[in-house]
Fold each of these.
Amino acid sequence: MSNRYKLLVVDIDGTLLDVNGVISDIDKQALKAAVKSGVAVSLSTGRVVQAVRRFLNQLELDGYHVFFDGALVYNPEKDEEVYIDPISPELVGEMIEYSKRVSLDFDLYSKTEFFAERPTWATDIRRDFFKLNARFIDFRQIQDRERFIKGTLVVASPEEKQKARDFCNHFRNRLHFSWTKTPAYPDVDFINIVANDVSKGKALQSLVSFMGISTDDVAAIGDGLNDISLLTAAGLAIAMGNAPDEVKSVAHHVTLDVSRQGVAEAVKQYIL
């Protein structure tokens, strides 16, 4: 079968994962059909590598994927990095000192580990929903010994959200922030913190260059604000029905909601 597109890039939360954190069998079969027809499928997510492995297994996907909101393009099976853009050690140190000063909990991630300074309701979510177990440690003990790719703020109350906004303002133009949600926790904001020039769109550019194809050969599906750079870089941009208007406005097409298997519908309509 001849396909117009050589690569399909798909977001996870709100695109593949429903409110229960499950990928529907219909979506699974659609992506497997795309692969069988000769289209490579890559996931593009703000999630860390450890939180994506089970979905790669469910979807029977190997190859290269985008993690950490675009800070890492990586093949977990081969342990092969195509592109990485960690946070500078100097900025990590400033983040640690600022968060301690204002009593704001945040997480840090290397390529293989999740670090937190103490157990909180947010680390409970990481454990129960994302299947990530934290290593609890004073960040000052490891700030010069690890390569940190991402930090995360997880906030729910108005006070926490204001502190998070203040944090973002304090590091404005020096770090990149994306506010994301997952349907399983509609009242919780997950703020990804990465190096200032990181984006899913830039990661896609690195991936297609590595693959020897053009962005015109890429179709992308997403629902979040952090997917805008991905969608605008792809040859075909598809927004989920549950995406906000800002995301829909940059898409060529809008598919069904995640609860109605929008990914499968998009694959059927535009890929196969």
Note: The chain has a mean pLDDT of 95.
Amino acid sequence: MLCAAAFPVGLLAAGVANAGGSPSVVMKNFNFSPMTLTIKAGTSVTWKNLDAEPHTVMSLDGLFRSGALDQNDSFTYKFAKPGTYKYLCSIHPRMRAAIIVR
């Protein structure tokens, strides 16, 4: 369960992956969008950096970590098991979000 106290209030804005396409998260204006994404187990998520500054995608539990992503670079990770996966940008640690896998 996602604890609102652990993340900024804006995290409560959630996205749900649609069945028609691959879910994605964009990094823009030093934020992840959507900040919460709900997907099914076995789904891959792609993050794309639209900022001119580099960003990373790093799970707080150490499960996944991208290298530095320059503008228009992307990183994809497949979520095999249900759970809540909180992540951040290790370069800009105020950038935080979560993937909820059902």
Note: Residues 4-101 form a domain with the Immunoglobulin-like fold (CATH 2.60.40.420).
